[in-house]
Design brief:
Ysc84_actin-binding; 188 residues; alpha+beta; 3 helices; 25% helix; signal; Ysc84 actin-binding domain-containing protein
């Protein structure tokens, strides 16, 4: 009996550490966005938000992106979300970025959490820090490089009740493509 308990206890403790590290990743990502100037007002006034610590994106003519995140309402964890993106057009490379989507009101939150939500190519994304392909997001309209926050667009408007910000983590992506993002939501 004791031989079975030792691996079981070890497994449970490893899962606890893993769950803690996962929670810390979300907390660190939210804090990173809180420290940036542009999204600060949204944390004060938004009904809720979805945060994605890492979205991986890559492409060569045809591309895609994927990331998993969490949804919060009034700063309380409400469930998980995933994002998938497909794109077509000139694109070459790969990158990783963090993304946050603010919900202006309950209507926008309910629309996002209804099950399957899509951002069209018209949705604007604000890049907060320097990075290649600063417009990496749903538009996919072109490659650009920003020298720092002073040279990047640092304000957003709500689109369909949502405002989106990204922070580039690494990589290099050249693109002039059309893309849209599709989200799923699972309540906790």
């Amino acid at each position: 009996m004791r031989h079975f308990l030792i691996p079981f206890v070890f497994l449970l403790s490893a899962l606890g550490v893993s769950a803690q590290a996962w929670a810390d990743e979300y907390r660190e990502t939210v804090n990173m966005f809180r420290e940036a100037e542009a999204p600060q007002p949204y944390f004060k006034s938004a009904y809720g938000y979805a945060v994605f610590p890492t979205i991986g994106k890559g492409g060569f003519i045809v591309g895609g992106a994927y990331g998993e995140g969490r949804v919060y309402k009034h700063h309380k964890y409400m469930g998980t979300t995933s994002m998938a993106q497909a794109s077509v057009g000139f694109q070459l490379g790969g990158q990783a970025y963090s993304q946050i989507i603010f919900f202006e009101d309950q209507r926008a939150y309910d629309e996002f959490t209804s099950g399957n939500f899509e951002f069209s190519a018209q949705a604007a994304v604000v890049a907060i820090t320097a990075g290649a392909s600063a417009e990496a997001g749903t538009k996919g309209t072109g490659a650009s490089v920003s020298g720092g926050q002073n040279n990047a667009r640092t304000s957003a408007d709500y689109y369909r009740g949502m405002a989106t910000f990204i922070i580039a983590k690494g990589g290099l992506m050249y693109e002039a493509s059309l893309a849209g993002q599709k989200f799923t939501f699972t309540p906790k």
